[in-house]
Write a structure and sequence with these properties.
Rossmann fold; N5-glutamine_MTase; SAM-dependent_MTases_sf; 19% strand; two-stranded antiparallel sheet; 267 residues
Length: 267
């Protein structure tokens, strides 16, 4: 039962990231483990996510708490962190303010704080879900990153109207439209293990991107806006030209060669 062993080692206090797991996975288990029948049945279930059992997830060499009702961070999102780091270096961004929208567990926020906590003088995490905000707060408290930032449970568009001065903005929003979600859920049971609100946008999956583009065009303070996207909307981004607004659109693909990240920067 490989999944059972994966679960066991994900629960070990010695495993703090995926590299630890690879190194230690052949060792003898050194902690008590007495699963009840419900736990055993979920291990056996082929597609049940291990982070739902262990209540933690590895992301960008971090061990993060992931609570019930909060979207489980995906490995492919790590490329957004890497691309953000590349752009921060490229434009020599230093001593900057940072906001993470649709923050989820805070995985993107924490990954960037790991590297730039001495450069970020102010940060905020925003999510419309109280459950997610609580999860973000727990994770930043574990990392002791609470001194320079705050977590807000609110609609991000309204928040940016009232708090618009951010040099760096990251966002991984719900990007599956209503019709797309219905079709995908029938074929893949998409909604079974992750909250619907974290996946489904409004009528069209591009709605959050339309709003952040509007913000980018009408706000002169930001330096970088970095967005996780999907192949559903690749054509939308290819057909979009913001050069007349002095904004450059940069498109990136993940390790599976799927359209994944968009970077907006000043020209």
């Amino acid at each position: 039962m490989p999944r059972a062993f994966d679960t066991l080692f994900s629960m070990s206090n010695r495993v703090k990231n995926f590299n630890d797991y690879v190194i230690l996975k052949d060792n003898t288990i050194d902690f008590l483990f007495k699963p009840n029948s419900k736990f055993r049945s979920k291990i056996i279930e082929e597609n049940y996510p291990i982070p739902r059992l262990t209540k933690k997830v590895f992301f960008n060499n971090n061990e993060l708490l992931v609570n019930p009702g909060v979207f489980i961070p995906r490995t492919e999102t790590e490329c957004l962190v890497k691309i953000t780091q590349e752009w921060i270096s490229r434009i020599n961004l230093s001593d900057f303010s940072y906001i993470d929208l649709c923050s989820g567990t805070g995985n993107i926020l924490i990954s960037l704080l790991d590297k730039y906590r001495d450069n970020i003088y102010r940060y905020s995490a925003v999510d419309a879900s109280y459950t997610s905000c609580k999860n973000v707060l727990e994770n930043i408290q574990l990392k002791k990153y609470t001194s320079k930032g705050d977590v807000y449970c609110t609609n991000w568009t309204q928040f940016l109207k009232e708090n618009s001065h951010w040099e760096l903005i990251t966002m991984n929003p719900p990007y599956i439209g209503k019709n797309e979600f219905t079709a995908l859920n029938k074929s893949t049971n998409l909604y079974k293990y992750d909250p619907k609100w974290a996946l489904q946008s409004e009528e069209t999956g591009f709605s959050h991107y339309s709003k952040i583009i509007e913000f980018a065009v009408n706000n002169s303070y930001w330096k970088l806006i970095i967005l996780e996207c999907s192949e559903f909307h690749e054509s939308n981004w290819k057909n979009l030209d913001l050069t007349s607004k002095n904004i450059q659109i940069n498109r990136y693909y993940d390790h599976l060669n799927k359209f994944r990240v968009v970077v907006l920067n000043r020209m």
